[in-house]
Amino acid sequence: MGGKQSRSKSSPFHGRTRPPGPSRGKVIDMLRQAVGFHAGGQLAMADHLYRQVLDLDPQHADALHWLGVLEGQSGNLAAAVDLLERAVASNPQDPVAFNDLGTAQRGLNRREQALESYARALDVKPDYAKVYSDRGAVLHELMRLDEARASLEQALALAPGDVEALLRQCRVLAESGELAAALEQSVRGLALEDSARTQGMFAEALKTVRFQGPAAGLQELIVRAIDEPWGRPNELGPAVASFLRQVPALKDFIARAALPPDLSAGPSLQALLTDAEGVRGDPVLLAVLRNVLVSDAELESLLTLARRAALIAFGSGGVPSPALLEFLCALAQQCFINEYVFAITDAETSRVAELRQRVGAMTGSGAVPDAMSVILAACYGPLTSIADAEALLQHPWPHAVSRVLEQQLEEPAEERRCAALIPALTPVSAGVSQQVRQQYEECPYP
Length: 446
Fold this sequence. Notes:
- This protein is mainly alpha-helical.
- Among the domains are: about 25-125, Alpha Horseshoe (Serine Threonine Protein Phosphatase 5, Tetratricopeptide repeat); about 245-420, no CATH class.
- It has 23 helices and no strands.
- Helix 5 (about 95-105) packs antiparallel against helix 6 and helix 5 (about 95-105) runs parallel beside helix 7 (about 130-140).
């Protein structure tokens, strides 16, 4: 009894016989679970199950495919390419696997190989829109712009709502010099998906355009691009200036600003304030004044005259219309942005000095100056240079005035508060060093 017992011949482990593998249904269940984990972002669990399937069936095309995709998402592009090449070898009729292989090859800068993979995908599925889009992106990277455009046009013909293809087409059109077409496509993209990526593409397309005529349907988008903003507002300045020059009312006043100085005064100058509803209420102009450094010489001349006209009309008192007040508030913000670069006459200098002294005396005594006096003072110099100007923040104001006070009083105060909290690694005591520090703090690098 103590001898070694023999195994039953009916045992599944008898001799060299291996245990039977799991059923096909079990493999399918494992793969389904893996894909579920993958879609849910549980990549470690998905990876484990994909590899279990491949342990059982090393040529399982779907497991090879999705594990390759997972490796690509994890940044392991070489491993991804290896797995995806095995996947398409196992199932050469899978266009999705060929497309994913092309994407992984593109990530390794193997662009010609990627084009071959995309071609194989289209051999299997000629109407595969995503392949045309991805192929267009690779052709763009190779600067084969005509081919890229054709491929992306095919993608959009098959899938008109493909935002990614639209964005790619915008870039190709812009680099091909078709700036108006690029802007048109970016507007189409915004209509499909109002998101950070489509907003950014609109701003990128807009900044390269110079308008030669009226452009319908862009006003609201331009205002949003500047106000929200969708990019760096100053980069939009030249494009938006060309847009504004197509506004009929603004064209007339730009022409008036170009007249000799003796014709830019009196009734002609006052017309800027009394007859310019189409100018002062233009939402694009207001957005530009509040946010963009105006570098257009003609617009600068116009704004310089508008400021002078306002001082003549309201420097000694008076109540403007709400629309005019909003325009002048935006003008005050522009003057602050451009560091008061607009030209000023001797007569203006004298009147402004009296005005600012009057506002300072009122704030110092606890009185509340009228909104127009505050805004005119802000048009000619920062409010922080007026004694006791912070007292203005204690009173209610129209929204447009409050924005000026926020820009010229609240934000500088917050900057000073933050500056006091910044630790100094070494003392700055030498006179020249202090001057340099002041210069960089006032004019920091962008």
